[in-house]
From TrEMBL:
This is Asparagine synthetase B.
């Protein structure tokens, strides 16, 4: 009798194990209540030294997690939709995905990347979309700035984010509109004091040195993600190494004569053949940005489309474009989008507004590392202005624009495959 009961018990345990072998985190529009927190759950599982499968192009880029009561409870606590799959259901999905006729693939995520955000320590009069979404998704990050970068601390991190930053030393080109604003005066004073403390005579020299360190970090195998003005100002700083492009109100001495002709586009990551904006009163860095060239696009019709890549052959761009829609709402920034003619031929355009001939979302390889540039400031605030209240992501848990940021956060966790294009 005892043997019989034990046998029955073992059979029941076996059945339970077989019938609940995996947790599916659906990422389609209908199946997921909170897409943004779903990335946080996936990151949390990776942080527990457990592997995850990213099901590319399957139900909006769903995640397949190992089953466990702790994981189920965490999903419930965070409000993330999930489905329990049996062994046979899991096998069926993976078989379907592996079919040559399907533009799908399963990519293994192996470890939680260590994340650094490049940001000054004080409060800014604007918000950072990446830190907001990392906080909302409950993904941990460390803040670094000039001292940490120049102190070779970037090697401690797998992923580095740059947001509304100016690497040219022109204080964000805010001089025209905000030179009398207390926050502008204070930021300029703090930046000059930091430069002096670090042994530099000018802020532009610090920013140039920082850009060079970040360049080395990526070439050595790092993952760099930039938004808004950090995108074009970073490449401008690289192209202008050793060239003074700042007017006297920024660095107390004249710019170099004919500095445009001294730019070296071979040193940049993404952009080439651009023209710098010489007017210090104009809120613009160069011809790369399309903000002032979007007169025929209204807010109601401002969308960009994500490109379609082969999941089995081009896993990297496919990962970065995972979403529950191929059409994403546009949003403005100091650098809103990129002139297609300025994007190097070696760089992949992941998202574009074809009507206006602009690239919104681009990706490339530099040395052993990767970079992604994403135009605009806040995916859920169309025209975020200095001093505007921050976006409450609780109101936008299914934001396609914010999903693109989180795709980049998980990208370094993927087991590396050779890219075919």
């Amino acid at each position: 009798m005892v043997k019989s009961l034990l046998s029955t018990l073992f059979i029941l345990v076996g059945v339970l194990q077989v019938s609940a072998s995996a947790i599916l985190i659906p990422m389609d529009a209908e199946g997921q209540k909170d897409h943004l927190k779903a990335y946080g759950i996936t990151y949390w599982v990776l942080s527990k030294q457990q592997k995850v499968q990213w099901l590319l192009n399957y139900r909006g880029g769903s995640f397949l997690l190992p089953d466990g009561e702790v994981i189920r409870k965490e999903c419930q606590i965070r409000g993330v939709s999930f489905e329990i799959l049996s062994d046979s259901q899991t096998e069926g999905i993976l078989n379907e995905i592996s079919s040559p006729s399907k533009n799908q693939d399963a990519v293994i995520l192996e470890k939680a990347p260590k994340i650094a955000v490049y940001s000054p320590k004080g409060n800014q009069p604007w918000d950072d979309a990446v830190t907001m979404v990392l906080t909302y998704a409950e993904i941990p990050y460390v803040t670094v700035y000039d001292e940490e970068v120049l102190g070779d601390k970037l090697a401690l991190y797998d992923w580095l984010h740059l947001h509304h930053e100016d690497f040219t030393g022109q204080y964000g080109k805010f001089y025209g509109a905000y030179r009398a604003a207390p926050w502008y005066i204070e930021q300029k004073k703090e930046a000059e004091a930091l430069a002096e403390r670090m042994g530099f005579s000018k802020v532009s020299e610090v920013k140039s040195a920082v850009a060079e360190k970040i360049r080395e970090y990526v070439i050595g195998g790092g993952f760099m993600f930039a938004m808004c003005s950090a995108t074009d100002s970073f490449d401008i700083a690289l192209s202008a190494k050793g060239v003074d492009i700042c007017e006297p109100m920024f660095d107390n001495d004249p710019s170099d004569a004919n500095y445009q002709g001294k730019l070296n586009f071979d040193r940049t990551f993404a952009f080439t053949d651009f023209t710098l904006e010489r007017n210090p009163l104009k809120y613009e860095f160069s011809s790369i940005d399309m903000t002032s060239k979007r007169g025929n696009i209204s807010k109601e019709y401002d969308y960009f489309s994500l490109m379609d890549f082969s999941a089995k052959w081009d896993a990297v761009p496919t990962m970065l474009c995972q979403n529950h829609t191929a059409l994403v709402k546009g949003f403005m920034g100091q650098t809103t989008s990129f002139m297609r003619e300025a994007v190097k031929s070696t760089v992949l355009v992941l998202g574009e507004n074809k009507q206006n001939g602009e690239a919104r979302y681009i990706h490339g390889v530099k040395g052993k590392g990767f970079f992604t540039f994403y135009g605009g400031h806040d995916p859920e605030d169309y025209q975020h202005r200095v001093g505007d209240p921050k976006t409450e992501l609780e109101l936008h848990p299914n934001s396609p624009g914010y999903r693109l940021i989180l795709n980049n956060v998980l990208f370094p966790a993927a087991r590396k495959k050779k890219q075919k294009t």
